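Example (one chain per record):
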Amino acid sequence: MPTANSEAPINLEVLTPATAMQAAVYKGASVVDVESVPVPKIGAGEILIRVEACGICHTDLKKIAYNLLPAPRIYGHETAGMVAAVGAGVTRYSPGDRVIVFHHIPCGECFYCRRKLYAQCPVYKKVGVTAGYEPAGGGFAQYVRAMDWIVERGVEKIPAGVSFEQACFVEPVNTCLKGIKQIDPQPDDVIAILGQGPIGLIFTMLAARSGARVVATDTMPERRAMARRFGALEVFDPRQSDPREAQLDQTVRSMTGGRGADLVIVAASAPGIVEQAVACSRPGARILLFAQTSHQERIEVSGASICMEERTLCGAYSASVDLQRESADLVFSGALPVEELVSHRYPLSQIHEGIERALHPGDGSLKIVVQPQR
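Predicted structure:
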């Protein structure tokens, strides 16, 4: 069978699942147990996908760590795998097809969809991919069921020569591309990207492709080095104890004739980080909040810094169906070297180690990928 990084000949008999599978089930109280659950049954218009790779995303980590949704659920939504079975009426996909799947797809007709605010669409907010229980993505399991509206518009075939590990970046790249399109960097703009985890590094890759001049911050030296490799002109450690902190503001202003950054992306969540974004930006700057997903998080900035100095604070959340093909092309073509972001790979039986490492990253830790078939 193909693994996350190979393309061995397909044995369709092996794709046919038994009645039970292994899954990492969120049980509540921040507990995840790997246990046997039924393989999802599919209906007309649906497909069953054998999961080969699923990235661990911080949105799922927050749901687990802070118990944001009722248990039980099976999380994981950065999913790549192989079609194992198709329901009646499915003609675009066949068993053995290698695919990625988006777990949210909008209706395309409501108030929010007409304004291209897809993440606010009631249908978009319904999760259409599940491994059982309340639908929650399901990628931390050996098989997932993609529902009919997802099969219709939310599945992309993986080209030959592209690994499952590489392909599972399509969804996170889409979310970052959506944010980049929103703030619309122009050649020679100076853009500060605060935070260089996997998402921040994807933002750095995309911003550098636009021709903008990127300045990046992160507390980890390995991540700062990667940011420079992916196109950042300057990198800094933002910690208060670091004497280089003042150099962020000085460098940005030296690059802009004393004005400040034209654009700022806040790609991490930490006390004071939004205030830092405002402080290093110029009047009229656009500041994108990308990691501020908790209702408990509070931001305090001067009203005058927004009103009188005419800055725009905006948010971007989740993927855009309009960018699905473009984000897939960026990943599949190798235009973005996303595979370099993977630092650790875990079988499903060791997902606890992966979650712990993702929650508390150390030196050399970046993107964590779960491989449920190992």
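Caption: The two ends are 11 Å apart (CA to CA).
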